[in-house]
Each structure stands twice: as C-alpha cells, then as structure tokens.
Amino acid sequence: MTALLRPLAIAAAFFSLHAHADEVAVAVAANFTAPMQKIAAAFEKDTGHKATLSFGATGKFYAQIANGAPFGILLAADDTTPEKIGKEGLGDSATRITYAIGQLVLWSKQPGYVDAEGKVLQKSDWQHIAIANPKLAPYGLAAMQALDKLGLTAQVRPRIVQGENIGQTYQFAASGNAPLGFVALSQVMENGALREGSAWVVPGNLHAPIRQDAIVLKPGQGNAAAAALMQYLRSDKARAVIQSYGYSF
C-alpha cells in the first residue's frame, strides 16, 4: 500500500467501526449517578455507541415511561418497577437483568458523628434526618423498614426531612441542612473508601434487599446501543466500577 493510500485506509476502517454507532436515552436511578457517568463514558469510548443519561426517582421515571417518555432503557433502584414494566408491555421482560444490589447507609458529613452501630438514631440532640420519599424511592422505603425493625419509627418520624429522590436526600445531608441522612452507600463511597464524614452501613436484615434491575423499554427495542449497553453492564470493566461504589451483585 502506498503512503498516500494508507491514511485513507485507516480513515475508512475508523468510519466502518463507528458507522453503525447508535444512541440510547437511559433513565437512571439517582443512587447510580456517579458509577453510571463513568460507565457511560467508557461505553462510548469502547463501542462508539452513546448513552444519554437522565437521573431521578424510579417512581417518577415509571410515570414518565407509562406516559410515553422516549427512554430506551431504565436502570431502576428496585426490581419491582422493571417487573411491572415488563408485565404492562412497556418493556421487554426477556432483557431484564439485575445490574447491582444496593446498600443503605446512615451518613453524616461530620466525622465521628455516626457511630459504628447507628446508635446515634436513639439520641435526641439532632433535629433533622433526611430520608427519600418511600413511595417513590426504594432507598427511602428501605430506610423506613429499618426504622420499623429498630422500633424507632415513632421517635424519628417527626424529624424527617423528605427528599424527592435519593439525590435530593443526599444534598440535604451534604449541605448540613440535616445532620443525618439515610442515603445510598454509592453516594458517599468511591474506590472502596468513605469520601468524607461518618457512616453506619445498615445491616441487610433490617430491610428488603435493594435489588436494582435494568430493562430495555419499548423505544429501545431494536436499538443497537441499547442492546450493547445491557451487555456492557455485565462486563468485567463495568462491574469493577459498580463494586468500587459499594454495590454487590
């Protein structure tokens, strides 16, 4: 091959690799914001496909999807919403996977404020605790289940500051408007370590498992990027990112 033709051949090969690249709109549970941003960037680099991300409460996403929102994939904060979506014909049940199992944590921005057993919940010297809306956010539901199991619901309920989703709940605690917050471990952990503050990882026997499922929605069926992303979420590279934020499988 001549020196003149070689650059043309390289350009042709690059074009061929990305000629069939597609784009998919992805509704992502707020707790999965940080890991999904990293995964989406690596996904585009590795495959040429693009994932356009929207973050929010699973319950709100369900309402939007039921009303025709053009999302191609839902990464939910639970497993019941994707199951419901499949049964209602809003998505393809055969594509449903568990991409992560979440971990609930009681967190404070203040170092040393939360003890290793969560006994701070029994104290009366704090005014507010941030908890996500249990009707919309699975992490909020898990928090209320934990309080019920601990027999602390009546004591804590008057001091709850309710977030619309786990993202807003984290902001309440991170800003100091609430000294305590039940948030996702993924929001306060990175590379296997707590970023700041103090925390108590809530034992799994105090609430139902936070199994987070993904499903291809009707607008995503036949979309090459949607199929590729669902496969990519199960890759070693994606799973390493997911685990670094405190999730299991």
Compose a concise summary of this entry:
By secondary structure, the protein is an alpha/beta fold. It has ten helices and twelve strands.
Question: Structural class, please?
Answer: alpha/beta
Adjacency order of strands in the biggest sheet: 2-1-3-12-4
The percentage helix is 25-40%
**From the 3D coordinates, which CATH architecture of the largest domain would you assign?**
3-Layer(aba) Sandwich
Residue-averaged pLDDT: 92
- Largest sheet report: 5 strands, mixed
Shape type: globular
Subunit structure: The complex is composed of two ATP-binding proteins (ModC), two transmembrane proteins (ModB) and a solute-binding protein (ModA).
Keywords: Metal-binding, Molybdenum, Signal
Pfam family, one: SBP_bac_11
GO molecular function, one term: tungstate binding
Question: How would you explain this protein's 3D organization?
Answer:
It is built from ten helices and twelve strands. Helix 2 runs antiparallel to helix 10 (236-244). It is α/β, with parallel strands linked by helices. The model is unreliable at 7-17 (pLDDT under 50). It has a five-stranded mixed β-sheet with strand order 2-1-3-12-4. The longest helix is centred in the N-terminal third of the chain and has 15 residues, at 33-47. The N and C termini lie far apart (50 Å). Helix content is 38%, strand content 25%. The chain has helices at residues 5-18, 33-47, 58-66, 80-87, 138-150, 153-156, 166-174, 185-188, 224-232, 236-244; strands spanning 23-29, 50-56, 73-75, 91-102, 104-108, 129-132, 160-163, 180-184, 189-190, 193-194, 198-201, 210-217. It has two domains: 21-102 and 210-244, Periplasmic binding protein-like II (D-Maltodextrin-Binding Protein, domain 2, 3-Layer(aba) Sandwich); 104-206, Periplasmic binding protein-like II (D-Maltodextrin-Binding Protein, domain 2). Helix 2 (33-47) links the parallel strand 1 (23-29) and strand 2 (50-56).
